[in-house]
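Task card 7
Instruction: Convert sequence to C-alpha cells.
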Amino acid sequence: MTWFFILCSIGLISLIIYWQLIIAEGTYLGARVVAFTYDWVAERYNSIKEFEPEIEDMAIGEPLMNILAQQPRALVLDVATGTGRVPLTLLRQADFEGRVVGLDRARRMLAVARRDTDRDRVYLLQADAMALPFADNTFPVVTCLEAMEFMPSPHHGLQEMVRVLAPATATHPERGWLITSRRVGWEAWLMPGKTWSHEQLHELLEQLAMRYISIQPWETIYDLVMAQKVNE
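Output:
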C-alpha cells in the first residue's frame, strides 16, 4: 500500500509539473517563470516549433499584408515577439516597407530575434506586456500571436494592446487593426482564467470599442482574431 501511494503521488506530481511547465508554460507560476522557460529553450525554439517560411508567410504574412495593403509603411508593434516570428514574416513580404517594434520579456529570445532580423527595420525591446512603455494611440497595427494565454492577466494584456493602438479615423480609415490569437482545443480547458470562448472574446473586444471583429479557425490550437479600433 505504501509503494502504491508513493507511485500515485509521483504520478500526480509529474502530471502537475507537465501541466504547469509544458501546457501552461509556467503562466500560473508568474511572469518570471514564463520568461525563464522561454529563455531556457531560446536557441532551440524555432526548431522545436518547426517554423517553415512558406507556411509562415501563408499563415501570418498574407493576413497581415491584407491589413497593411493601404499602409505598407506602417509601424507595427508585435507584443510577445519571441524570436521574431512576426517581424521575420513581414520582412519577407515584398510589399511591406514599414518597420516593426518587437517586445518581449525573455532576454534570450530577443537575442535570437536580434541575430536574425534586420536592425534597420526591426527594433527589439525587453519590456512587460502588462505595462507597454508607449503612449496611447501610438501604433496603427498591433500584433500578438500565440501568447496572450501566457500573460499574467490576458484581459489586462488585451487592454494594453488596445490602449496603444491608434484608432481608425475619417482621414486614416486604414489604421487601428489588432491581430491576435485565441487558444482553442482541449488544452485551452486546462488553462482556466487564461482563455476565452468565442463569444466571451467577441463581447470583450466590443467592450474595448473594437469593431469589424473576426474570429476564424487558423492553426490547430488557435483561432486568428482580427478587429479594428474605431474613433467614435
